[in-house]
Every structure is written in structure tokens, then in C-alpha cells.
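tool_log.txt
---
The assistant was asked to compare two proteins side by side. It first ran the structure predictor on the initial sequence, then on the second. Raw inputs and outputs are pasted verbatim so the downstream comparison step can read them without reformatting.
(1)
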Amino acid sequence: MLALSIRQPYAEFILRGIKTIEYRSRGTRIIGQRFHLYAAGK
């Protein structure tokens, strides 16, 4: 399964539904698929 790495506190905001959009400098191909969310530290 695919994984997406996001730093804290943004990972928690996404899981709580506070942050609904993630902008990235590099595109991702994980659109419309299930994936793991990896909460990286600072």
C-alpha cells in the first residue's frame, strides 16, 4: 500500500478534518486511492 509523509501538526489536522487540502511542490499520484498517512516529526 502507498504512504504519504506529512509533518506534524498538519497530519493531525488532516485526520481531524480541520485541514482538507494539501498543497505540495511535487505532484502525487495518490489521487482517489487508499493510502497510509505517515506523520513525520520536525
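(2)
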Amino acid sequence: MLKPIAALLAAGLLTNAALAQLVPLSPDKAEFRSLYKELVETDTSITTGSCTVAAERMAMRLKAAGFNDEQLYLFAVPEKRQEGGLVATWPGTSKTLKPLLLIAHIDVVAAKREDWVRDPYTLIEEDGYFYGRGTVDAKALASVWTDLLVRQAKAGKRHKRTIKLALTCGEETNGAFNGIEWLAANKRDLIDAEFALNEGGGGQSNGTAIAKGGKVVGQSMQVGEKTFANYELETRNPGGHSSVPRPDNAIYQLNAALQKLEAHRFPVEFTDTTRTYFRVAGAGRNDAIGQAMVALAANPADSQAEAVVNTVPFLHSNLRTTCVATMLDAGHARNALPQRARANVNCRIFPGHSVEAIRQELAGIIADPGVTVTALAPLRPSPPNPPLDPKVMEPARKLVAKYFPGVPLVPLMANGYTDATFLGAVGIPTYGVPGMWLDPDGNGVHGLNERIEVASLYTGRDFLTELVEAYANK
């Protein structure tokens, strides 16, 4: 078999990606692929799927590996039976060290077969990538965490720290039953930990697959995130016949309020995380934007540097609270003056500000008592960012240097939010791990044809195994 393969390589007829598919996986990696395949192919969308089924399947794998019933806690509430989850506990040897918590959401954004090139709920390996809904977000991480505990249980391996795993539902759907939120409120002792590891960090490639000569150019650890909040702006008046316009038109009044919000820019703010990110990531860019990032980190009042940085949407948002209109609803008939007009404004709130404080600020910006501003449920907590703790950052930094020589690890605050919000609110600092990487286009996460490089998944598995062992034994 080796001679034909060598001949094909010499002739340039066999790519590295194709060669990798011909080389058999080791038994433990084959089992990991099987677990990953089962999880990806279990539909866990809120519309047609079941997180409960996925959690039960992962529990069965853990039990087969050596977990007993007392170490596995499956949960679901009666009114949301298909949105359940799992907590698994693998005991450590230390009586004094607090546990390490691994979390990953197993629900996914819904996907329609007619829109995708491939069946979204079938794991397909093609040209160096795994395709399927959830292959990245966040079943890659959920599979790595579960596989890690499967291997430890099979080997009877125990670390100093107890390791806990929470696979939960509800992260992808606003207002759905959220498993981490429920556990934090109802089973705090079950998930108690010194700190938790979650999605949110990771790397970025240069846009070319590793199998085709690409490379990883960045790795980040998520340390903090913004608070997610929706506000409803509403105007009302008696309306009337459209043939007799009146000056107090509800649509025009709402439009004036939205124009004020559009023109408003929230001030520049920094946390320890974002200041470090702007300084380190900026220094690595070697361009005008990088220079402006470094300057702004040193002097937040530098308006010239801010103007340059603001040209990059992510950086602009990473510096401040942002609020943007996302939905409109107005009027009741084509031939009548509107009696009501409403808009949804979605805000991503910089740490240190509450949902209510931003509501009051929006009302002040609009400065019109005829426009009501209401914070919509669910109201999320606004926990402080976790600290840039050396015991968390240094092991990750060393492993990034080992796996990705020359690539710095930078702390990053997410402009969005994850389940870390609910853990931070009950005193469990939560960090988004580096390791796996994506392409610059985002790999179809939340969109069509979601994918992850095969090399990213397998390398990330090895990286994260070492990272957890470093934390669990220190």
C-alpha cells in the first residue's frame, strides 16, 4: 500500500488532506470521532431537536467508560422536557483544591436541509473539513470535554482537582430554558468550582487550511464579555384618519428617537483584559490600526487614535457599549394614522453597567417623555469580568507556545455573550479557551454550511487535554 501512495504523492495526485483520510485513526481518536459524530448528528435545535436526548447519549458513553450513577446527573424541567442537560463529576484526590468546571452548550441554531449544500445533521468529512450544524458551535468543545472524561475514566486516572462537566441547552435561543442559568440558581453546589472553562476563545488561521500549507496566526483566551439586553421603544397617540395628518405622528416620533440613538456614540472604556488586548494585539499588527490600538490603550482620550480604531467594527464595539435598532412594528391600517410604533433596540453593554443603568441612559439620549423605554425579559445579570489570573493564563500561554510557536496568546473580551454570564453572576470566574481555530470567514457558524478543519478539532483535543491536566494538577 505504501508504494502506490508514494507514487501518487510524487505525481501530485494525492493531497495532504486525502492522505490523512487514508491513514487509520488510533483507537482512542477513532472513539473520539465516533462520539463527535453522534453528538453532531443528534439534532439539538429548539425547533426540531432534543438536548435531552444528546445529554442522555453522552451520559451513556461516560457510564460505559466507568462513571457510576452518582457521578452522573441528568436534568430537565417538566415544562421543557427536550431542553435538558448533564452534569458529570470525576473526583480528584485533593481534599483542599476546589474543582475545575468544564462547560459547553449542546443546543444549536436551527438549520434547513434545503438551504445547505450537505445535510446539516450528518457529519461529513470533505477536503480537510468536518461539515455539519454544531461542528464548531459548540459541539466541538462539548465532544472534547466528554471524550477527555471518557479517557480518564477508562484509565482510572485521577488528578488533584475534581473535574466537573456541564453539557447544557438554551445558549442559542433568547428566552429559552437555559441549563447553566438553572444550575446556577438551583444546583449551585453541583457545579461549584474555582473557575470554569468555556467556549469563546480560540485561534484564527490565515485563511488557508493547515493541510494545504496554512498556519494559525492568533490565539486568544476569552476573559469577560458584554451583557446582552433588548429594549423596546414605544410611541402612542390617538391616531385618526390618514386624510387629516396631525403633527404628533407615532412613526415620526419614534423615528426621531432612533435618529438620536444612531447619532450617539457611547464613550471609550477599558478593562484590564481589553487594555492588554489592544496593547498586545495592536503591537502585533504592524500597521496604522495597530499603532492606534497601542496609543489608545495608553491614552483613552486620544481622539485621533480612536478615530482610526473605530474604522474596524469589532474594535469599535470592543471599546464601548453599543445599541442598535433591530426590529420595527408600527401602524394598524394603510389608511389610518398610526396609534402605536415600536422598535427593538439591542444593546451589548460594557462591563460595569447594569441593564437598568443603560435603560436610563437611553431615555436620557432620546429626551422625549412621549417615548417609553422598557427593558425586555429575560433580564440578564451583569457580572464583573474574571481576573487576568496568572494561574489561568500562564498554563495556556505555555501550551500556545508549544503548539503554535511564535503565536502570542492574547486575552479577549467578547462583544457578545455566552453562558459565562450566569456563572460569573454566582462567583465562578469563567474563561473561554484557546486551542481550536477558525478561518477568517467564521466557518459558517450560525449560518450555512458550518464547518471546522479536521486538524483544528484533533489538535484542539490534544491541546485542551493538556490544558485541563495542567489546571487539574496544580
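---
observation on (2): The domain at 227-375 is CATH 3.30.70.360 (Alpha-Beta Plaits). The CA atoms of residues 121 and 425 lie 34 Å apart.
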